[in-house]
Each structure stands twice: as C-alpha cells, then as structure tokens.
Amino acid sequence: MKKIVLYGPESTGKTTLAKQLAAHYNTLWVPEFMRHYLEEKWKTKKEMVSKKDLVPIAKGQLELEKESLKKVEKLLICDTNLLELKVYSEYYYNGFCPEFIQKEALKNNTAMYLLTYIDIPWEADILRDQPNNREEMFHIFEAELKKNSFPYQILEGNKEERLQKAIEIINGL
C-alpha cells in the first residue's frame, strides 16, 4: 500500500490534483479535514482557527486517513497530512506546535510527498490569507521535507502538466 501526500502552500492546486489522481488510479483521496472543520467553525461561530483547534484538526485528519486506508488496496491519495499542519502551526504561532502533532507528523508512512509549486494563480477564499508570501511559504514547506529526509518531488506547471508528472512519479514507485 502506497500513500501519496499532496503538500505545499495554500492555493497551489492540491485538492484539484488529489481528485484527478484518485480518478486516474480509481482509488480514494483523503480531503483536508482542517478546511471542513474551519469552514464549519466560521459558519457557526464566525471564528477563525485558534491554538485550541490544532489537536482536534489533527485527530480528524488522522481519522479520515485511517478510515480511507481500510477501503483501498494499493494507493491512497492525501490532499494534505499532519506535516502541513505542523508547518502552519509553527508559522502562525511563532514556533508553537502541540507535541501530539509534532510526533504524529514525523512518522514517515508516506511513499512520496508531491510538493506543489506556487506557479498557479492564487484564489481567495474565507480561509486563505497569504497571497503575498507564497514563495516564502513554499521554501518553508520544502525545508521541512529536507530537514526530515522525507521523499518528495516538486510539481510545477499547469493542471495537466502537474497531473502527468504526478502520474509518472507514482508509476515509478
């Protein structure tokens, strides 16, 4: 069983690519739990993310992955994982990341990280807030992969080019 994680800054095409890859390989993709959680929080309380949300978000993401792993045989595509949550936590909270997330994020059970580059247009939504520092964020994401010696490939180009490169990478595994 191989797990592929789409990973990178906001608005870099991860969800679109996750759906495309799942369709291509006739498998499941795991959505980003944080998006669902925070959209619901905004609708009901008009509040954005806070430190107290981080562990529930992490546990929700892990549960989605666990349930999806039970339903696939060869390949699981993840829109994100806890390493991304760790990066954002440390970025937004001045180096703070709950110990639970740090521990879980560094368990390397991922066959390949597909790091999405910032060469597609940024699209605004209620949760996205960093249109002007995408290059900085990209380098932070890449540095985390390098620091932990996690396997990764960078995906650049338009949607079709990214899809074709991702398929080549996955087929090579």
UniProtKB/TrEMBL annotation:
Domain of life: Bacteria
Pfam families with a match to the protein in the record: AAA_28 (PF13521)
InterPro entries cross-referenced by the UniProt entry: NAD_biosynth-regulator (IPR052735), NadR/Ttd14_AAA_dom (IPR038727), P-loop_NTPase (IPR027417)
GO MF term (any one): nucleotidyltransferase activity
Keywords: Nucleotidyltransferase, Transferase
Gene3D superfamilies: P-loop containing nucleotide triphosphate hydrolases
Keyword Transferase: yes
Keyword Flavoprotein: no
Domain called NadR/Ttd14 AAA: residue spans: 3-162
Identification of the protein by name: Nicotinamide-nucleotide adenylyltransferase, NadR type
Lineage: Bacteria, Pseudomonadati, Bacteroidota, Flavobacteriia, Flavobacteriales
